[in-house]
Structures are given as C-alpha cells and as structure tokens.
Amino acid sequence: MIVPLTGAVADTCGGKAGALGALLRAGLPVPDGFVVTFAAYRAAVRDLHLGRPATGPDDPGPERQEKADDPGLARQEKPDDLGAAWRAKPGDSGTAWWEKLDHSGAARRAIEGRPVHAALAGALGRALAELGDPPVAVRSSASNEDTAHASAAGQHESFLAVRGADAVADAVRDCWASLFSPRAIGYRDASGPGARRSGDLAMAVIVQRHLDAEVSGVMFTPADPDGVTGIEASWGLGPSVVEGTVTPDAYRVAGDGSVTRTIADKRTRLDRRGTRLVTRDVPAPARRRPAIDDASAMRLAELGREIAAVLGGPQDIEWAIVGGRTWILQARPVTAEPPPPPPAAALDGATVILTGTPSASGTLGGSGGSGALGGLGTSGISGGSGTLGGSGGSGGSDGSGAVLAGTPGSRGSVTGTARIVRGPGDFARVRPGDILVCPFTDPAWTPLLRIAAGVVTETGGVLSHAAIVAREHAIPAVLGVPDATRKLREDSVITVDGTTGTVTATDA
User: Fold this and answer.
1) What's the pLDDT at 21?
2) Of the residues 132, 137, 296, 410, which has the fewest C-beta atoms closer than 10 A?
3) Contact 70, 171 (CB under 8 A)
C-alpha cells in the first residue's frame, strides 16, 4: 500500500506520482518521498458502499446503498454557497444536481469520519521515519488527474508543512475524500464523458519532503523544441502562483536563449512557520525586483526540455528554488496552450525587460499601475536598451468603451453581465452567461465555471490553476487586471477578450 516515490507508476499511483517517479529514475531533482497507492484507498472505502455518484446524463446515478447505522452516509446536507452554480446550469434538473451533491457529500463525510486503518497508519509512521520525520507535503494523485486530456488543476486537496504520522494520516484521508468535493465533481462534469464516469475513480497520495522555497513558480515547455518556454515566478511557496493570489513575474525563454521578462508588483508571499502557512507582505524594495535572473530562467528552460524529453511532450511544471538549487515538484502534460502575448504596444502598468544575454537589458512599457501583466512580452526582440510606451494606469471605467488591460489567459471573446464575486457569499448571485470579476479565483470556485461566460481577475498569471481550467473549458479569461472589482460595475455589460488581454466596459 506504500511504495517509494522512485518506484511510482501511473497505473497504481496516479499520473502525478507516476511522472515524479519517472523523473527521479531519470536522475532529475525531485524531493524524495513515498506514495500511498490506489490499493490503500480502495481498501479504506471498500465497505463504505459509496456507489457511483451521478455525474452527468450518461451516468445512471448512485446505487442507494446507504445503511441506517452509518450516520456519515445517512446525513444529507446541501452546500448553500455553491447552490446557485449547481442549480443554474442550462438544461440540467436542479433536483438531479442536488441528488448528486447530496450523495457525494455523504461519501466525503463517510471517508472523513473514520480513522485511517491501524496497519496503514503504522506503515506511514515507518515511511516517515525513513525520511527523518521532516515536515512533508501531502498531495493528491488521482486516477483522473494530470492526464493528457484533463489536468484537474487544483481540484483535489493538497497540504504543505505537515508534520508527524497522525497529521499525515489525516491529510491522506482528506485527499481521499476530496474526490467527492463539489469542485472535483464540477470539474469532472465539465471535462466530458470520459472524466465524468466515476466507476474507476481512485486516489493515491504523494508524501514528499517539504521544501521551504525562496522562489517558486510554474513553467510551460513548448511543443516545438525550438519554441518559447513560458515561466512564472514569485517569492515564497508555490501556492501563491498556482492559486493566482499574486501576479508573478513572467519570463519567455526563446530557443536561441534570449529572455523576455515582465516584472510584477509581487506584494505578498507564502511561507512555512512551523506547521502553519503564513502570508506576509513583501518588503517594498523587493516587490519589483526580479524573482529570478535571466541565467536562472535559461537553466529552468533547459531543465524543462529535459523533463519534456523524459515524459514525452510539452509539460506543465511546478518548480522551487531552495539554497540556489532548483527542484521539480510536479510535471504533467499541457492540456491547453495559453494565448500568445499581445504586441508590445499593448503593455501597460508593467516593467518589461528584453534581454539577449543575462547582461544585456532594456525597458519596455511604463512604470505605473499596480500589477504586472504576467506572461506578456515580445519574444522576437532581443538585446539593446531603451524605453518604449508610456507610464501608469490601466484605464478607467468612468465612460462608455473604457478599456482595462491584463494578461491574456484563455482565448476567445465574450460579452456579458459583470458579476463581482469576492467570495462564497456572492455565489448565489451568479447566473448563466455572467462574467466573473474577482480578486482571484480559488480552485473551490470551479463549479462557477460551469455557468460563467468569462473570467476577469485582479491577480494571477497565465499558468495559474484558474487560467488552466478556463482554457480547458474554453472560457475567455483575462488575468491580472488591477482594481477590476472597483473599476467594473456590478450588472454593467462588459466584453472580455482573452486573446488580447483586454476588458471593455461598454456601459460603465
């Protein structure tokens, strides 16, 4: 039920663990650890009679096997904060969706409500002792996660800074239960019939040594070996970048080694303090300092090429730097390419540096604004110096036709009603065809993407979980638009162009 990470394969440990195992066997820098396999999950839930939760019109629904003496399965609760998203999908029966959520909520509670079996708990304790009992990361590796067709980015639970066998056992159990969370169900439903069928759902769990990252981020390798590698980076631990709570620096490394940087205003960072994660302010002098230099970006791009060669095809890679050493935390197939960056003339509110070598630089764009447009840049320019473009601001919303600029996150254009969403309390106001305007999008908000026509965020980069899911669902998205929730009015009509990275307030 537990295997070393070096021996992990997708068939028994899921795509995420299988990829890390392959990289370790190839000698690439992956933190050591172990995997709690599919077999452990199946043994843990075998007698719970979970059945098959209904997952779409082609799925007949659950076998109602709840036992009267099993309070975890007997109790039925409706998640009020997600109610509107589930009820409002056009063509769906609200009753069918509630039945699905009721059953899946019961399944989740049944898993969460029982302790990990003593034999597995003992094995976890021994495996942790072999690592030296350090703080660990506990991460999901589901059977339908990190595949070539669906990333399930951010849809299952993962935990950092976990310490001790009891805490790890609890985190493993929570990863198992997250197969039945509203966001995971919503993602599977929106990802097509293959992802919706739940009969073969299983959850393996990766337990790896936790890294106290000084800098971390995401990298997309190109389909063409001579193409451009996209990198996003920010201070501290990786969730700030992947969850979109900061707008990261963005780097584009061309096949000839030239680097384009867009330097963001990185205001917060996430770090470990004991067994807690804390968000703290970045000191002002460091906010617009590049998180990595050009030489580091080029080394990352080279490492990305090695990873793509081992795994076969373009990869979405999470990485971290600790003490000057780069580590790989995850690698999965790129399921949807991000839009290309807009022309240099479209840049506003960000500092962009174009370099042919690590020592040659120039500045493009302005110094104003409160957020960088992560992922932007002009890959065909290298070397030289000078300043192009203007300074400050990203437009206002005090007149018809005002345009706000951000990061092109997901291709396409759509016009709809702006719906300001700052948290779960706002979910009930979202209706089919609305455009979500948010400070950032939490993975738990995935069910809203079933009905939204587009997404606008104030922070986040093109490689974040929200952007990936928007591209997989073909929803236009523009990210990193400073003060979007203030500049765009509730119920106003806006046009989101996720290809150019613009938001036009037509009746603001």
Assistant:
1) 98
2) 132
3) no
* Pairwise CA distance, residues 48 & 190, whole Å: 27
pTM: 0.79
- How many other β-carbons are positioned within 10 Å of the β-carbon of residue 134? 14
Residue 419 has pLDDT above 50, yes or no: yes
- Which residue carries 């990305």 as its tokens? 304
pLDDT in tens, 198-208: 457 899 999 99
CA distances from 23 to 317, 403, 430 (A): 12, 45, 42
pLDDT at 126: 97
State residue 53's pLDDT score: 43
Alpha carbons 411 and 470: distance in angstroms, whole number: 9
Phi then psi for residue 134, to 5 deg, are -85, 175
For the ranges 82-86, 134-138, 320-324, which has the lowest average pLDDT?
82-86
Q: How many CB atoms within 10 Å of residue 125? A: 16
Contact 504, 495 (CB under 8 A): yes
Residue 387 — very low, low, confident or very high, per pLDDT cuts 50/70/90? very low
Say what percent of the chain tops pLDDT 70.
73
Q: Rounded CA gap, 98 and 84, in Å?
A: 11
Residue 260 φ then ψ, to 5° = -115, 125
- In sequence order, which residues have a C-beta less than 8 Å from that of residue 336 and are 6 or more positions away? 410, 468, 471, 472
| Beta bridge partners of residue 260, listed in sequence order | 252, 354
The 10s digit of each residue's pLDDT in 38-66 is 999 999 988 776 644 444 433 433 333 33
Tokens 């069910």 correspond to 447
* DSSP 8-class letter at 282: P
Give the list of residues 6+ apart from residue 98 with CB closer than 8 angstroms, or none: 78, 86, 87
Do the bridges between strand 402-405 and strand 502-505 make them parallel or antiparallel, or are there none, so unpaired?
antiparallel
Q: Which residue has the higher pLDDT, 75 or 394?
A: 394
CA distance 414 to 427: 21
The CA-atom distances, in angstroms, between 191 and each of 98, 447, 450 are: 19, 12, 10
Q: Give dist(CA 496, CA 417) in Å, integer.
A: 11
Helix (H, G, I), strand (E, B) or coil at 286: helix
Contacts of 125 (CB under 8 A, 6+ apart): 165
**DSSP string covering 94-161:** HHHHHHHHHHHHHHHHHHHTSPPPHHHHHHHHHHHHHHTS--EEEEEEETTSS-SS---TT-S-EEEE
Read out DSSP for 295-363?
HHHHHHHHHHHHHHHHHTS-EEEEEEEETTEEEEEEEEE--SPPPPPPPGGG--SSEEEEESSTT---E
Considering Cα of 85, then 91, then 94, then 96, what sign does the dihedral take?
negative
